[in-house]
Amino acid sequence: MPSSVTFSGWGSGTWARGGWNAPLIEVSVDGVSATASLGTAVANFGVGVTVTGV
Amino acid sequence: MAITQAMCTSFKTELLLGVHRFAPSGESAASTFKLALYSSGASLSAGTTGFVAGGECVGTNYVSAGSALVINGVSAGTTSGFVDIADLTFSNVSIAADGALIYNTAPHAGNNAGATITNAAVCVLDFGSTKTASAGDFTVVFPAFTSAAAIIRIA
Prior knowledge:
The structure holds two protein chains of two kinds.
Chain A: E1 3-7, E2 24-28, E3 32-34
Antiparallel strand pairs in A: 1-2
Chain B: E1 6-7, H1 9-16, E2 33-38, E3 67-68, E4 71-76, E5 81-85, E6 88-104, E7 120-141, E8 152-154
Antiparallel strand pairs in B: 1-7, 2-3, 2-6, 4-5, 5-8, 6-7
């Protein structure tokens, strides 16, 4: 689940994060994923195929 | 109207077409990705194919179409690939946002027919509730850059 933290007040946030006394909201988001799949390849040599030039 | 978190379906097809390049920002091969913020009135889902203005946040110091993301590149897990995106801060803004759309402003290829793709959607992020900043910084914190948690993963 996404979540958030709000830093507010004098000296808000951690050191070097956000401006002095500036409120700061950090929204943590979730990732998105996909599952990759491979299909099955079939080699189909049809009837009537003639190999020439041999 | 709703914001439903998803990897956009069009993004999946466009990966196969070479539209999106998550090379580190600044490299010549890199696409340019942006993140736009949306209010609860937006309609975003897996079916979103590109940047949409409808429902986008409006507020002090927030610029329409959002801000550019810094991509740190991709990595491989045992059988997966995943993308590292740096946290993004909108500074000194007054906005209320319920979600976001990541999209590509510089696609590297066209669609199946070779037609140009513009502002191609990557994924929709749902914040779970309305997040409000009032004359402050609004930071989107991405999950850890791991095969199990990274913001964009193909496994």
